[in-house]
Amino acid sequence: MVQPATHPCPQRVTHLYSTDEHHHQREWLSTTEKIVSEAEPLDIVFTAPHPDDLEIGMGGTIAKLVDQGYRVGMLHMTSGEPTPRGDLKTRATERDQAADVLGVAICHQLELTNRELMDGPAARYAVATFLRRHRPKILVGMAGRTPGASPDHYQAQLITEAARFYSQFTKWDDRFDGTSPHRIDHLVYRPVPVAAEITHYHTTFVVDITDTIQRKIKAVHCYKSQFDETRMARVEQYIRGNASADGSKAGFEYGETYALPRPLGTSNLINLLGDWKIPPPFDPQDPPPSP
């Protein structure tokens, strides 16, 4: 089990770029993150194709892990642009504001191309390089085909799965910016509620986000270029509805469901099951007397 950091987390470091909107070229303005990450690896990394995907799908769990003292990283594979109402500068500002709301240690955006995101060697190298640099024990990514939305979502799943394996390759450091091999212990899926197929997973579990759902929604509200008032109301309804459905399955008011590509093991069944949050239909301190 990953133990939370016993030291204070450093101030969140975001990769900063100067952006040429015509040529999509970015230039480093800061090299601080690499120095910090080598001394203090991340406990867990969440990755998705576009800024706002992580916040909508996994924001409650991200905020909860931060509150529990873990070093959490967010990796956006693309800028998410172009979009009808957005632009690169605005979307980057919204991305950083959302990361501040959630409180993550590191938020990074790759230079892969929105709308053309495809699983392949270049994308795998890019994600795996980030993972080798920041050395998390757990990698979380979205899962499921979304024909009614961006095909980038499913391609990101394939890239995430491959990058997790690529991160441990030896004798290939030149393909990963000179970083050393790193084995990631656990791959976790966040199944998309509107996926085209119903997938059977070896293990599913629900994270209680009752105490962080408001932070999750606040982070999504940062993306004003993506959601006008009407769309934001629908997105918030979607978030609350799915979180309520997920949470109720495990006795929580709100939850996020995750899955594993293997059975979940434990050496302590009691701790694994924990307490059932739904109260009994009587007062345990004063049950009704027998007639």
Can you offer a commentary on this structure?
The termini are far apart. A six-stranded parallel sheet has the order 1-6-5-4-7-8, with helices on both faces. The protein has a two-stranded antiparallel ribbon with strand order 2-3. A two-stranded antiparallel ribbon has the order 9-10. Helix 2 (53-67) runs antiparallel to helix 6, helix 3 (88-102) runs antiparallel to helix 6 and helix 4 packs across helix 5 (152-166). It has one domain (13-18, 27-273): 3-Layer(aba) Sandwich (Rossmann fold), CATH 3.40.50.10320. The chain has helices spanning 32-39, 53-67, 88-102, 121-134, 152-166, 213-220, 229-249, 269-273, and strands spanning 13-14, 17-20, 25-28, 44-48, 72-78, 106-112, 138-143, 186-191, 203-208, 255-260. The longest helix has 21 residues, at 229-249. The protein is built from eight helices and ten strands. Helix content is 35%, strand content 18%. The chain is an alpha/beta fold.
The class by helix and strand makeup works out as alpha/beta
Q: Percent helix among the residues?
A: 25-40%
What is the count of distinct domains? 1
Order of helices and strands: EEEHEHEHEHEHEEHHEH
CATH class group? Alpha Beta
Q: Which CATH-level-2 architecture?
A: 3-Layer(aba) Sandwich
SS elements, strand count: 10
Overall, the morphology is globular
Q: C-alpha Rg, in Å?
A: 20 Å
Number of helices in the DSSP assignment: 8
Largest β sheet strand count, sense and barrel closure: 6 strands, parallel
Query: In the CATH scheme, what's the topology name?
Result: Rossmann fold
> What percent strand?
15-25%
Largest sheet, spatial ordering of strands: 1-6-5-4-7-8
